[in-house]
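Researcher: We're teaching a course module on how sequence relates to structure. For the next exercise, students receive a sequence and then see the predicted structure as tokens, so they can try to spot secondary structure elements on their own. Here is the exercise chain.
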Amino acid sequence: MKDIPGIVLVASIWAYWLGVGIMIARVRSRTHTLAGLVPEQRLEKYLWLIWIPLVVAWMVLPYHALVRPPSTWLVPQFARQSTAYASLRWLAAAGAVASLLLTSLCWSRMGRSWRMDVSTRKTGELITDGPFAYARHPIYALQRLHVLCSVVVVPTWQMLGLAAVHLWLTQLKARNEERHLLSIFAAAYDDYAERTGMFLPKFKRLSLRRGVRTLALPWALIAVLLVPCALDADAQESSPPPIGSPGQPLRVNLDRDTQERILALEPEHITDEEVRNVLARAPAPRIINMQGSVAFVTMAPFAEFLIAMGYPEERVRDPRDGTLSYSSSVDSARLAGALAWYYEHEGMMPMLIGHSQGGMMAIKVLHELAGDFDDRLTVWNPLRNEAEARTSIVDPVTGAQEPIIGLKVPYAAALATGVLPRIMLGQWNMVARLHEIPDTVTEFTGYSLDWDLIAGNFGHSEPYRAMGSAKVRNVTLPASAGHISLPLVLPLASDPITRAWISDYSPSRPRAPLPSDSGVDLSNLVHAADIWYSVKKHWCLEAQRLIRAERRDDLARR
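Model: And here is the predicted structure for the students to work with:
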């Protein structure tokens, strides 16, 4: 589905600065000046050094978030999947367009008096009517609204930082202009400032009917324009193409020779060449890469690493919106229901890899599948993003009805997940369960730092323990690794030396010395290699399981 709020926002930002360019051209044609494009004051010349890059960033960042996935600057997944936040994004997009329309009224009222800087050579008139009757600096106020709406539509750290700088710059700019206007208009400007707010109206002075009419008209217009788009977008989303056919035997659709080559692989000793030439032809389980609670660093770089190492890209991307990093702020029961849906339609249970809170969510889903929170789980359709009125699925291998409770994930991993954040975030039902791994996973690996202030490790990390038959490993990461930067592993797949080290890695053998002649940071090499080893191992095992199941089914039909 297209990101309509993002498209509307980008269009409004570019239209805004196109309007600025048109205003400069109009004023120049009438006054033969550049309308303050080149500032006269020394202070404003310094402000321009910040202002120009800020404007460029404001135009580029939202556009980049739309057209350059995968990226750590991408619109976070919670902003796309949360129904409440999606509505807020639509409202913010409408606010951006409304601010543009109201700004055009301000430009129109200023006419040839409009300029970008403070001019010491031209006085002009003191404008106090129209939009300027409500605020002394309505253009800056509306520009602030436009920027804040941009942050809501594209809620990234980069946009938040841009908004903070913008608020500071407009404050400085407005104060500088007021000093200049006060020196020229003296008492007249004093009276104007007394009855009019700087950025917001002084409501006690406003006619309520006039104010409501002025503010409501642009919003009503935007609602008329955008609501049909929203309904059309929902309609497009409501009928996604199916992935498989539940109840029908799944076929691997591979010729006999390819099947034999896949069955001949040793899951614990798969080379880079075998990944490229053999395993790449096999069906692959979906991988759910879940990011931490604060999406400063998402799991997109880690997903890109898996793709660069040879994992099928379509099995790493979210089939609903194409993103590579899943939010960890989701309902664990829904995610467990989605895993069941994937298994029914694709014949393979997904693998779970989580960073920080994402690791907690992976473990919580395992407890959901074990029935530790409820004895029934509902199937969740991840493409329609809605529940299906059933608590069981048709096993794609046996054809039998199976409850969601008891399904088993082939592999799960948790990176830098600790008890302290669970306490601070009030996630009490996971404090005691965090390091207890139930039988709903075949193999689990926990990666920890002995010194990790975010996770709450102060010289020692608590090991993960199997509650039953699950195979659980604990890996202590080197001190050079850092909690926040653990997903940043993509360069390791691009460098030939580190790629060879990763491909040759096996936890059952003594670890080879880290390469000393590599040109990339090796802080994240150990867990990148260890996870890739487990991913290709269970990829191979799941593909072999499907091939053998298909052959048993064919034999039974004869």
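Model: If you want an answer key for the exercise: The two ends are 45 Å apart (CA to CA). The chain has two domains: 4-237, 256-557.
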